[in-house]
Design a protein that fits this description.
It is built from 2 helices and 10 strands; from the N terminus they run αβββββββββαβ. With 161 residues, the chain is of the alpha+beta class. Strands 3-2-9-8-7-10 form a 6-stranded mixed sheet, covered by helices on one side. Strands 1-4-5-6 form a 4-stranded antiparallel sheet, with helices on both faces. The protein is globular.
């Protein structure tokens, strides 16, 4: 008897359970900062693109920028900020004083686009995200800098296009 037909549904169900368990663990760990951000929100905006720097794992994603799918939103509180992508079941919550921001054009390969690269601790792991928006990038920079995030480079000029 071939065990493969029984193994495939088990692997799919285990994968789905892993994703939901990871999301629940992340949301629980982020609860204090998320509550502070929502209670003292100073700035919120939709983002055009968010890319996450891969750190290894399946498929060898180390050092590769991976686009986060679905609608993305940035909410900035007094001392922390959150980038969420509900469709991708992802939420990145950064404490401002434990993060850094810098201006870059590196994550985009197809078009020249301005990005803000955010580096910091998320749930005990070092994470890097690159965020962009067609207009309003200087306002995003100022809001992030207002949380205490260390500024590696000066603020970008107004994005065009």
């Amino acid at each position: 008897m071939n065990p493969l037909p029984f193994l495939i549904p088990f692997v799919v169900i285990a994968g789905i359970m892993y994703v939901f368990m990871r999301q629940k663990r992340e949301r629980t760990a982020n609860a204090p900062l998320r509550g502070e951000i929502q209670a003292r929100a100073r700035f919120a905006t939709r983002l055009d693109q968010v890319s996450h720097l891969g750190a290894g794992g399946i498929g060898g994603t180390r050092g590769v920028w991976i686009s986060v799918r679905g609608p993305k939103r940035l909410v900035v509180g007094a001392d922390a900020f959150m980038i969420s992508a509900p469709q991708a079941l992802r939420e990145f919550v950064f404490a401002g004083r434990e993060s850094s921001i810098r201006f870059s054009q590196a994550p985009s390969r197809l078009v020249q686009r301005d990005w803000i690269v955010i580096a910091g601790q998320v749930n005990g792991r070092q994470e890097q995200l690159a965020i962009t928006k067609r207009a309003g990038l200087p306002e995003i920079w100022q809001a992030l800098a207002g949380t205490g995030a260390a500024q590696d480079w000066g603020p970008p000029a107004e994005a065009s296009g």
